[in-house]
Amino acid sequence: MTTVVDYGTYQRLRITLDGQGLLQLRFGEPGTLPVANARMHHELAAVWRDIDADTRVRSVLVASDGKGFLAGGDLEDVAQISVDPEARLHVWQEARDLVHNMVNCQAPVVCAVHGPAVGAGLALALLADICIVTPDARLIDGHIRLGVAAGDHSAMVWPLACGLAHSKYYLLLGEELLGKEAERLGLVARCVPAESLHDVALSIAKRLAQGPRQAQRMTKHALSHWLRAALPVFEASLGMEMLGFGTAEAGEGLNALRARRAPKFP
Q1: Which domain CATH number covers 220?
Q2: In-domain check, residue 28
């Protein structure tokens, strides 16, 4: 049975599918840093269900056409969920969907990352099956800087990828990781020169599209049980993040980000 999905409803994502089954998911505009605003966050959470349902898809390549990969949430959206419990519940559900849907997407996903990857952008990068970065890639889990728990994905993914000690260091301090260091720690698959990023990522995605479809999907399904076993950790961390948005610490973190200054947490 063949299922064909129409991706025309997506506004912030540019989705193309070639005759070999390689789906490219791209976003951002040259010269700008894409931001995961409310619409982008919704689409990133929903698109993986469509990709999984589309029987034509054999592999996925995710990349940004902007001057960086993808920044975190729009500050006005963050301010809204800080004061509006209904908005907070909505974001909680979408953040859950983004992680669960990527984990359960059967097609192998390759992600090409340059420049900043923050918040939902970082989750998108590190939940990919194969993440390729450049030396100037900046992997930033900014939750602690904002004054909330690291809830998007990191409490689940980072310890599996680079160990508990490194995870605690980077997530408790909110320190950024450059591409080469992320590769050394095992957080990403490869670090390649900036001028090679697109070609390397595209080559890997094409190889996957030409490989044995069912064998790849069954291998991914089995390996993804490591992530599924850690989903209770993710659920706890995401719940704590959402609780944190109602605290004075989150208020100070947001004010500091708006003023481009260091926070002074109460």
Answers
A1: 3.90.226.10
A2: yes
Pairing of strands 130-133, 109-113: parallel
Mean pLDDT of 46-68: 97
119-145 pLDDT, tens digit each: 999 999 999 999 999 999 999 999 999
Cα 95 to Cα 42, 53, 54, 143, 234, distances in angstroms: 9, 20, 22, 14, 10
Q: What's residue 1's pLDDT? A: 78
Does residue 245 lie in a domain region?
yes
Q: Is residue 9 domain-resident?
A: no
* Residue 7 belongs to a domain: no
Range of the domain at 178: 14-195+212-259
How many structural domains does the chain have? Answer: 1
Report how far residue 66's alpha carbon sits from residue 35's, in angstroms, rounded to the nearest whole number.
10
The confidence score (pLDDT) of residue 72 equals 83
pTM: 0.95
Q: Which two tokens stand for residue 173?
A: 């301090």
